[in-house]
Structures are given as C-alpha cells and as structure tokens.
User: Fold this.
Amino acid sequence: RIGAMRAGGYALALRGDRVARLLHRPWRLDPYPVYAQLRAAQLARGPVRSGTGLTAVATHASVEAVLRDRRLGVRLSDGRSRLSQGDAPSLMEPVDLSLLTVDPPDHTRLRRLAQPAFAPRRLAHYRAVAEQVTTELLDRALARRGPFDLVADLASPLPIRVISALLDVPDVDAERFARWGLALGSSLDGVRSPAHVRELTRATDGMRALFGQLLEQRRAHPGEDVISTLAGAVDGGTATADEVLALAQLLLVAGFETTTNLIGNAVQAMHRTPGQWTALAADPSLAAAAVEETLRYDSPVQLTARFAHEDVEVGDLRLCRDSGVLVLLASANRDPAVHADPDRFDLHREQAAPHLAFSGGAHYCLGAPLARLEGEVALRLLAERMPRLRPAGSPVPRVATVLRGPLQLPVTA
Ligand code: HEM
Assistant:
C-alpha cells in the first residue's frame, strides 16, 4: 500500500511499514503513540527506515541535529526537486512553495526579501489588526448567544485577515483570498485527486492574477507592505516575477491554516486537560505560555523532510546522498528526554529545551513572531471575554499527516 505525503513541500511515497502507519486514518487522528514507538525503536536500533528507503528521525536530539545540518537540504544534491526524479507523478507539485522548496544560495536571497514583512514595527501594526479583528469576531460570536464554531468563527478568519494586512490585499478580494488560502493549504498534505489538482490550479491562477495586479499597482505607488518590497526586487533584478509570485503565495499558505490549527489545538487541549482553561480564564496573561505549550504539545505542523546532499552521518542517522529523511517535529516535542511528563499539557511548564514546532536551521519559520502574536491575542481576548468557554459538541478532526488541528470545534461562551 502506497501513500503519498507532502512534507516541507515535497511529496514522498511510502510503502506499508511503521513510518507509513502515520498515514492511516486511526494514526493520523492520534499519531502520538506511533511517535513514541518510533522514538523507542530509534533509541534501541537507530532511526526507523521505511520500505522506500525513507528514514524517520523521532528524538529531539536527532530532529534538531538534522535541521541544523547544512549537508542536508530540501532539494536533491544536484539542485533538482525530488519530484523530477520520476518516482512520483508531477501532479503532486502544482503549488510552488518558494522558500520551502529551495536551498541556499537562492533560499538566502529570497528569504531576505520577505524578512522586512516581520520587522518589529510591522509586527506592532499586525498586533493592532489582530486585536481589532479578534474583538469584532468575538462580538459577533457573543451576539449569537449560543454555541459557535471556534474554527469558522475565530481561528480561521483571524489569520487570513492578518495576512491580508501583511500583503495589503484590498478588502474586496478578502473572501476570494481566503478560499485560495484554504485550497493551497490543503496541498501541504499532498494532492488527493485530479479534481484536487484542478482546484489548486484554479487557486494558483487566481492568486497569480491578483498578485500580478498588486505588483503593478505597488510598482507605481509603493507602500510599506511586502508586495511593494517584492516589486522593487523585480525591478532591481534581485528576483524574477515568478519567484516573487511564489513567495507571496507562500506567505498566504504558510501563515493561514498553521495559525488556525494553533488556536484550535490550544482551546482543545485546555478543554481536555482539567483545570487548564480555568487557569487561563483566571489569568489571561498566561496566553503566551498557552501558545508555547500548545506548539510543543500538539504541533500544528507535525513533520517536514530533508534530503542528504552527500553521504552523511548525523548522530545515529546514516544517509546516502540524495536519500530522504522524515523529520518528526511533533515527536521531538514529546520526547521525555527533554520534556518531563511530555504527554501532559501544562500551562505552567518550564520548558527545559525549546520546542521544534517552528522547525530549525535555515528554514526556521519566518512567521514565528507573527504566529505567536496572533495566538496570544486570540487566547487572551477569548479568556477575557468568554471566561466560561466550554465544549458544545464533538469536534471534527482534520485527517491529515502534516497539518494537525480541528476542522470544527463547537464551543459555547
Ligand atoms: C516555515 C511552522 C505560522 C511563514 C515554517 C516551517 C514550520 C513552520 C515547521 C519550516 C518547515 C521546514 O523546516 O521544512 C509554522 C507554525 C505556524 C506558522 C506551526 C503557526 C502556529 C507562520 C506564519 C507565517 C509563516 C503566520 C507568515 C505569514 C513561514 C515561512 C516559512 C515558514 C515564510 C518558510 C521559511 C523558509 O523556508 O525559510 N513554518 N508556521 N509561518 N513559515 Fe511558518
């Protein structure tokens, strides 16, 4: 049985073995017991290798070491994409995920272009946007005086509105923009069918048209937004039009469902662990701690992948040139070697080692400060405005391998 998985922008084919179990529905609903087995197996015999030669690293030490090692990258050693090898159909990669799919020096050059979008002054602006949008969304939910869906009514619209501010996308396009974000976000987990490919193609075509227009506009009237920076880079010859379109697309995809999952996972974890929501409601200044603990305990991005650019040994991992390694971020975050009682959600946890939910090394999440800010604002205002928030029905889980978080989370204030 073969499953196709996209991790870090790559589709990987796996055959029925322990690693591939993660692809099966019951394990995708709760992958943590599988991670525990993979960690134990790694400690006993070294990293588990799948039938297709893909190896999984599961311990905190090995995940961190692989992410930091410059001899591994997101492309093959000769710069080709993994998919151009012909071992997976080309329809697997209809979305160009920019930074996530390039190695230095292109990666360094392109990452520098997006960096100004996350400067402290810009972040202060996004905080104001996040607070205003969250207040509006909570007003609307409270006005309903009954159960509401935490995902549809808060966790999903908030990041899309903040990213629209980041890219300075006009309000008139916001709804289409949200639809494209949902479609493209779904591609992070692999492409399911030709119909899914058509949906993705429609979304990317629409986004290219919109960003193409915005680039033209900002070229004529530059502002402080990232699209203006990108338009300048094309004019100055530091990037091609295709590269900046892909980068703008990545900013939409990378910051949307990841943040939705963070907020959903946080509320879910606090509701499921006795005393945790009431602790936050009693002291909403714990919101930032709740964000960190959620990133560790139920990571919105569970895994990524790397390829060896030469024969390498990284700790207990041995890889031949061009072979792939599945990097289980969420497993590292539950490793008892660094996190005491790792399967317990604890707002007051002193994190002994930083979690790896934002990855590490060259591809460390560029949007981490923004994700933290949005999560903190959402949870703090939720706790202030709805201190008695409680579940109001069964959540609908996302059945996915890379992204993790509820699709629907019914709650009541
Ligand atoms: C990369 C997680 C929110 C922008 C990454 C990676 C992870 C990650 C794990 C690296 C993947 C790899 O190493 O292969 C998350 C999580 C988020 C979040 C868990 C929310 C809780 C955001 C936001 C933005 C963003 C809000 C911006 C709007 C990016 C970008 C990259 C990235 C641009 C590519 C960096 C590179 O390849 O150099 N993110 N992310 N992310 N993220 Fe985030």
The chain has a mean pLDDT of 87. Residues 396 and 408 are 5 Å apart (CA to CA).
